[in-house]
Amino acid sequence: MSVPILVITNSFIPEYLFTELKKRGSLKLKRDLSPEEFEKAKQEAEIIIASGGSKFKKEDYDSCPNLKLITDFGVGYDGIDINEANLHQVLVSHTPNVLNDDVADLALAHTLNITRNLVNSHNYAKAGIWEQEGAFPLATNCHHQKVGLVGLGRIGLEIAHRAEAFKMKVSYYARHPKDVPYCYYDNLEEMAKNVEILILAIPASKETFHLIDKKILKALGPQGFLINIARGSIVNTEDLIYALEHKEIKGAALDVFEHEPHIEEALRKLDNVILSPHIGSATESTRLAMANLVLANVDAYLKGESLVTQVKENKF
Ligand code: NAP
Questions:
Q1: What pLDDT shows up at residue 52?
Q2: What lines the ligand 1 site, CB under 6 Å?
Q3: Which of 249, 228, 147 is closest to 195 using CA atoms?
């Protein structure tokens, strides 16, 4: 019998993945199903394809009695309850490493953009204001700034290497010091006081929820910039909006949002903010590499072998 595979994410997934999955089982996509058809597909599904933004909680496991494997098309799996996966004996994989360079590139692009005020200068030139009003105001230099990475894992390390190439001085905050030539802080507020640019590259979790709040933003200070390419829930959005509106920090560049795809109107109105719609890994080649890693995990499961990239807390 053909293995029932259900795709529950609306992320931008290459058609190639769907074509390949159809060779391995009977494929259904949530986006093509009515609510009743979706409920039936959940009852049958043996493999579910989710993504970083997918929510999969206790009630979802209960409504998928035949589920054996969730493959997350992404590295972050904060939406998937791994304890419940363990209780229900469901395997979970994700797509680490293949997206590190893209996400790190975006972090640096956002850092350069916000410090050099590039989007506003682009709008200034494009609207012909230069000719009418003269030179554009001065910005902040990016090179030689002190940058503090919140999280120095797979992606954080790639950001650090790029920051070094821009002659920036790198510090980091994590639970454990690493074998790297960067200054380690076990106290985030202390690090925020000592850097000009704070870049978030840490997973969303109960421990990191609203880690960036008014205290940390105050410590970052009026010359400081916040870059978030990690997860929206790590930042207290209300505190960030207040800090930006009252110039308690100089600017922010955000790829991820607490209530995405909704972005608070206040954030959208501010001109000391740069926004992107969660595009960290959104390039053609990286999404293809992620698709291949999803397929490698599906194939390993179908052959009864160990998953290629199993989520580390997934043990039963
Ligand atoms: P990773 O390799 O697991 O690294 C995570 C880092 O965070 C490690 O340095 C870890 O160090 C630190 N950390 C974890 N929990 C912590 C805590 N409670 N307090 C302090 N430090 C903590 O993860 P990654 O592959 O670099 O990915 C990081 C995150 O980026 C993902 O979880 C995902 O949410 C996000 N992401 C976003 C996009 C996008 O499109 N914008 C794309 C990919 C990934 P210690 O263990 O030493 O604390």
A1: 78
A2: 75-76, 96, 99, 103, 151-156, 174-176, 201-205, 207-208, 229-231, 255-256, 278, 280-281
A3: 147
Ligand 1 centroid to Cα of residue 236, in Å, is: 18
Rounded to two decimals, what is the model's pTM? 0.97
pLDDT at 62: 96
Residues with a catalytic annotation lie at 231, 260, 278
* Per-residue model confidence (pLDDT) at position 117: 98
pLDDT of residue 309: 98
Domains and CATH numbers, the chain: 3-98+284-302 (3.40.50.720), 100-275 (3.40.50.720)
Q: Residues with Cβ < 8 Å from 66, sequence gap 6 or more?
A: 4, 43, 44, 45, 46
* pLDDT on residue 11: 84
Which residues in the chain come in under a pLDDT of 70?
A: none
Is the Cβ–Cβ distance between 203 and 152 less than 8 Å? no
DSSP one-letter string for 250-312: SEEEES--TTTT---HHHHH-TTEEE--S-TT-SHHHHHHHHHHHHHHHHHHHTTPPPSSB-T
- Best probe residue, ligand 1, of 12, 175, 229 (max atoms within 8 Å of C-beta): 175
Q: What is the phi/psi pair of residue 188, to 5°?
A: -65, -40
89 Ramachandran zone, left/alpha/beta (phi>0; psi -120 to 50)? left
